[in-house]
Amino acid sequence: MRRILLGLTAAAMMAAMMALSGVALAQPDVCVSNKGDTKVDKGDSTCFSDETSHAVAVKDSDALAVDNSKAIAINDSGGQADRGATADDNSKAIAINDSGALARDNSDAKAINGSETLAAFNSKGTSINGSETLASTNSDAKAINDSETLASTNSKSKAINGSRALAWDNCTATAQNGEEVECGERP
Asked: From CA 19, how far away is CA 30, in angstroms rounded?
């Protein structure tokens, strides 16, 4: 019995040492740029900020922030044409888990879990769980769970659970559970 306990204890200690050595071998992947100065640059992530902005990229991600903006990209949110966080002109962009967020001209863009968001000209856009959002010109758009939404020119749109909502020119569109809703006149 004593031999068995001693053997189990030794095996547990060996397993713990192997696990700890694996943790010790893991390399950090983070990039932090603050006011034009790269503070941390370890691993494959990339980041850039000008003298007025902040950019952070973690785990194979890309973040770019210029003109008094903030960009955060985490977990395979990289390659600025496709994925990553890009913020310009007093804006904030956040991309998490294989997502892309672009915010321009006093806007806020958030993309989470395989989503894409573009917000521009005093707008807010949020996409979650495989969704796509476009918000432009004083508008607010949200898409959740494999949905698509667009809000343009003083409009609001919200799409949930495989839905599509399009709001053009001073209107509000809400779509749920596979619905397709459109309001306003297309430009």
From this structure: 22
